[in-house]
Amino acid sequence: MRRIAGILLNTLRTLSFRKILRLLRLALPHPLFSLLGFYATVKSFMLAQKHFPETNANSGIGNAYRHALWTCLIMMYCCKISSPHKALDFCKKMTDLHEELFPNEPLEKKMDLHNNQVGMDLFMELLPGIHRQFFETNFFVEKLFVKTKTAKILSNLQDDFGSDLVYLKQ
């Protein structure tokens, strides 16, 4: 947990005043969503680090898994206090803002945005069969493990792999 706190502090130090304002514009109108989104961030990081210690922090399969899990968890937590539509809207704004505040190379950005969308789509796909109050983390962990087995390597910006996870390197 100390490592995560250190990462968080170092990350916040890299933000300019303008970027901090953009972050506050997302967080202040939705304080509960923001807290739940932060918790989802920490939990997805810890789970990805546990299951994919070598590739969760680079552009490998663990990173793809972490991004999809992250959005599933944001959706799950936010749906417990609000509607799926509002949770989806916040999740999309939060994850897109992350990509803007911490820019990557174009191919890495495409990979992250794609995997974020895979997670949101997975949640929405499961939603009709399970009451939103009864969702649990393990619902996504297993389904995303299956998706890691069929993940594709993203090699150019025109690639489109639908609902498959994508990654750049092993």
Automatic annotation (TrEMBL):
The keyword Transmembrane applies. Keywords: Membrane, Transmembrane, Transmembrane helix. The chain crosses the membrane at residues 20-40. Pfam families: DUF6973. It comes from Kaistella yananensis. InterPro entries: DUF6973. The lineage of its organism: Bacteria, Pseudomonadati, Bacteroidota, Flavobacteriia, Flavobacteriales. Residues 25-151 form the DUF6973 domain. It comes from the Bacteria. This is DUF6973 domain-containing protein.
